[in-house]
Amino acid sequence: MRDELNQGLIDFLKASPTPFHATSNLALRLEAAGFQRLDERDTWHTEAGGQYYVTRNDSAIIAFKVGKRPLTEAGIRLVGAHTDSPCLRVKPNPELQRHGFFQLGVEIYGGALLAPWFDRDLSLAGRVTFRRDGKVESQLINFELPIAVIPNLAIHLNREANSGWAINKQTEMPPILAQVAGTEPVDFRALLANQLALEHSLNADAVLDYELSFYDTQPAAVIGLNSDFIAGARLDNLLSCYAGLQALLSAGDAETCVLVCTDHEEIGSSSACGADGPMLEQVLRRVIPQDQDFVRTIQRSLLVSADNAHGIHPNYPDKHDENHGPKLNAGPVIKINSNQRYATNSETAGFFRHLCLENEVPVQSFVVRSDMACGSTIGPITASQLGVRTVDIGLPTFAMHSIRELAGSHDLAHLVKVLSAFYSSPELP
């Protein structure tokens, strides 16, 4: 079971280099399991026992099973995660031709660790909007092949490289894609039109715009002397998206279960398809149209906000509170912050801990050091938007926001097990 889950995650990560691809792959897996796609522009007819999903902006997805128990009595079991990760996004007019090299200007998306992006085999993927036969269309593309690199400057020319070198996001991050002869400008949009033709057999009249991200072509892998770890890009937070999907697919038909994977968490979630937008509430209100029934249902519901936690690093143990250093392969982490950077309270934490104990899943706690700033998640945002009780949890990882992160190879199975139990739990606190 563990090895099968880990390989499934590795395959999912490889197929999902951008939030658009992650959403598309989640949708494909849901459809294969019999979920019906809903269009927000249409009238919906949902019924007990039905399985549905809806996407927005091609980068966020909400999937749900309508249970047979009345919602006002049973509530809803929600699991939340996010589809985006820090990366390098291509600028609108990105072409740079300097000293015989073709480069692309990039904007840093989210709080990326920049140093690991150097000397990697990079490819490019995302969504392209184009005109064909007088109509505007969009399509996902993925070059897949390593087409770019950001070479480090030799240490002979940068003696400060190992002693606190500050990376300039504007001048040092543009990837190199090719050598070019002469002064004839390279047309990046023409390259995208060619990729549309190669990948989808689409002949675009003109590429109008795009949202494209560079990514590392090295696939995720189980590594370590004893295969203790999973190394890969975008573990934050596609790992939680994948775990939530596996749990939802195995859920029974008694309870109403929801998986919500929103976009833009890494930049604050304030968008139409982010957790700080109206998407989740609008979807739930279409399932529960009566105001009083909606409030009654929400007050009987619980959200598990699943986002990665900081595992205690053996080289930097002083970065953790000495009593709250989560270990890899020691189970999911309950994340707590008195200043509401996490939405956990004693009741929701107690319920999640109870679920773990009941299902023989190890569980840990994380509190940031009192002299350090604390990150946040979609948990407090969703809790404040819906008024739903929430527990923030996640799997411990190293190198969060790096181009290659590290998690424990046993922990995915732990998370899927407890989320499956949550979706099937007949009683919520």
TrEMBL record:
Keywords: Aminopeptidase, Hydrolase, Metal-binding, Metalloprotease, Protease, Zinc. It comes from the Bacteria. Zn(2+) binds at H82, H156, H401. Its EC number is 3.4.11.-. Coiled coil: none annotated. Pfam families: Peptidase_M18. Its cofactor is Zn(2+). One of its GO terms (biological process) is proteolysis. The keyword Ion transport does not apply. GO terms for cellular component: cytoplasm. It is an enzyme of class 3 (hydrolase). Belongs to the peptidase M18 family. This is Probable M18 family aminopeptidase 2. It comes from Pseudomonas segetis.
